[in-house]
Amino acid sequence: MSPPRPAGGDPWLRVFRGGAHAGLRLVCLPHAGGSAGFFQPWAARLPDSVDLLAVRYPGRQDRLAEPCVEEMDLLADRVTESLTPYLDRPLALFGHSMGASVAYEVAIRLEDRLGVVPRVLFVSGHGAPHVTRLDQRPDDLDDEEFLARIAALGEVDPVVFRSPKLRELVVPALRADLRLIHGYLPRAARAVSAPISAYLGTGDPACDRESVAAWAELTTGGFRLRAFPGDHFYLVPARTELLADLTAQLDGRPTTPRAAATVTGHLT
User: Fold this and answer.
1) Does 232 qualify as catalytic in the annotation?
2) Alpha-carbon separation of residue 105 from 3, 75, 95 (angstroms)
3) Hey, which of 8, 34, 206, 207 would disulfide with 127, CB 3.0 to 4.6 Å?
């Protein structure tokens, strides 16, 4: 497998798996404060039929010198523009936490502006945007309070919170992303044609089953929900099962979750 690289020199996308014979592209959108590298471990677990790309938000890692984007419309516009050279094959979108709302907005733009309907819109760890609001302004909290709230979600890399140098790098992007979510006012119940498949952790303090189930109101293409044991970052320990479920849906195969999972509705 070739090393990760920007897609065609585009700073907004990183290719973790790309092949001439892949029939579909999976585009992943990270959580608040997250980076494209969060999805790199997925590359080895996806079939050769699926390319893997991840969105690189500015203001972190190798885009650290660039200002963060704090407006949803601007962010979704930039991501959509970056995807236009990659629409020669079907694509699916996967967004976790903040990335779920960004993926939803990108799906709207792909459909309305380019006539492209994603194979599936996967949303993870986030309630439907028309019923979910971030009430606490991120700038009302000092760094200690702010990081305590983030750590309570089950952050995947707690070393960040113990290192002053790492905190200096991470906190500005986290605050900017949460400002974006705080100010995000989506179109009321704007449904996309893509089927929506929603995931959550059963112990996620950031969202509950009811708010995640409300994604069903935002699609005319069918809805499915599955829960995994775990917190907001359930998708790290449940990576194998999550990717098996996701891949089966991309292949059009029926899925039979284990007893620990729950499913409502069906993709059509």
Assistant:
1) yes
2) 29, 9, 11
3) 207
Token pair belonging to 78? 């930039």
Nearest to 180 by CA among 232, 139, 215, 217: 139
**Could you tell me the pTM of the whole model?**
0.88
Are 196 and 219 spatial neighbours (Cβ–Cβ below 8 Å)? yes
Tally of helices (H runs) and strands (E runs) in the chain = 7, 9
Give the neighbor-by-neighbor strand order of the sheet with 263-264.
5-7, 10-17, 50-55, 24-29, 91-96, 121-124, 196-201, 223-228, 263-264
Taking the CA atoms of 224, 230, 234 and 240 in sequence, report the sign of the dihedral they define: negative
Position 201: which residue type? G
Q: Which helix (H) or strand (E) holds 51?
A: strand 50-55
SS3 content of the chain, % helix, strand, coil (to 5): 40, 20, 45
Task: Identify whether 182 is a catalytic site residue.
Answer: no
Choose, from 35, 82, 97, 124, the residue flagged as catalytic.
97
pLDDT by position in tens, the chain (length 268): 444 555 557 899 999 988 767 899 999 999 998 899 999 999 999 999 999 999 999 998 889 999 999 999 999 999 999 999 999 999 999 999 999 999 999 999 999 999 999 999 999 999 999 998 766 677 777 777 777 777 777 765 555 566 677 777 788 888 899 899 988 977 667 999 999 999 999 999 989 999 999 999 999 999 999 999 999 999 999 999 999 999 999 987 655 433 333 343 334 2
